[in-house]
Specification:
Layout lengths: L1 H44 L9 H13 L8 E6 L17 E9 L20 E9 L5
Antiparallel strand pairs: 1-2, 2-3
Helix pairs in contact: 1-2
Amino acid sequence: MKQILVFILFSAILCWFMFSPIYKHVLIVRQAVIQKEVDLLLEIGANGSHGYISEAMLQDSRLRLATRGFTSTELIYDVKTSSGDVGSDPARPVIRGVGIQLLISYPYKSLFDIDRLVGIRPPDAASRMTASGMKMSEYVP
């Protein structure tokens, strides 16, 4: 009986060691893709032609991230400005010198469930990975 228990525990630890780097790599890649998307949206939205990050830009971003394996309905975008103005209204672009801040978040889902095999508690179900950035607007009316 002890041998079966030792075998089961050893198997669980061995599986965790074998698959741990794989899902950690998935986490790192997801985080990098989201951060790259934040940088792209800020580069486009804060340039001299725009001064905003519109809802159409966010929908295009959702489609791009969906092609990378993300569920587009679970992505949350938050656009703010350093002056408190609306940063997503094309009718009122943010003027030069005001910062546009973007935050994208996505749930971890069950990415850390394999950690339970060795007794590590995974993050809450409500936990989300986030990527954020801020860029000063270059728009001049």
